[in-house]
Amino acid sequence: MTSAANLDYAQARLQARHGVRARPSDWSRIEGSRDLQHFLSVATTSPLSRWVRGLTPEMSAHDLERVLRLEWSQYVREIASWLPAAWQPAVVWAGTLTDLQFVARLADPAPCPAWMFADPLFGSVAPGPPAERAASLALTELAPLAPAVATSADVRAAWHTQWQRRLPGMDQDTAYHLQRLTRTVAARIAGSAASGPAAGSTAVGSTQRIERIFREAAGTAVSALAHLALTALDLERLRGCLAERAVFSRARQAA
Length: 255
Hints:
Layout: H1 3-19, H2 24-31, H3 36-44, H4 49-52, H5 61-81, H6 88-95, H7 100-106, H8 114-117, H9 130-137, H10 146-151, H11 155-166, H12 172-191, H13 197-216, H14 221-254
């Protein structure tokens, strides 16, 4: 199958996935559930069902997060598999962007939090000082970031260097759309530290811009990256909902 045929195939499947993303009305219905058990019950009948089907009300916030991160990793690899082989390493690496906050924590000399020791990826990496963590990280899919952990260097800069190395050659149109998407995602990450109305406004604006890029980059691999960026934003929102309700449920049980 030629690269063009691969992209046509990918675009058809991406359009189908894009069409079943949760809409504002879905979010409104789901977020109306304050109890974790009821939230999961409602979410299971929504477009978010693929993300919550492995979750149970008994899980802690960290357990919920762990399952979602595993599902996300599998989803990224599925999307990447639809694309021409030259693009697959870059797309898979893009999926690790959500792990950077945890990798940065490994560079901190302080002991890692207890939840990291139970994590499928970071559990074997968390023990010991940063130098030992870096040595363990070098045995995982995040191995290129190990030197940054060992030297307390900028993890995001190290990630970006690896991203650039994985990008294949591309035409001018694809490069243009990729630059737009990269800027939008970078701005979203920079604005994620905001709180209150500012955070909500930043998220909505980012979603709208990425949706526009998804449409305008149709027929290029950037459309797949845009879809993943939108999915990551959906999961960020879902994580917040789950964490809030998990904590509320525990507090109510303890009362």
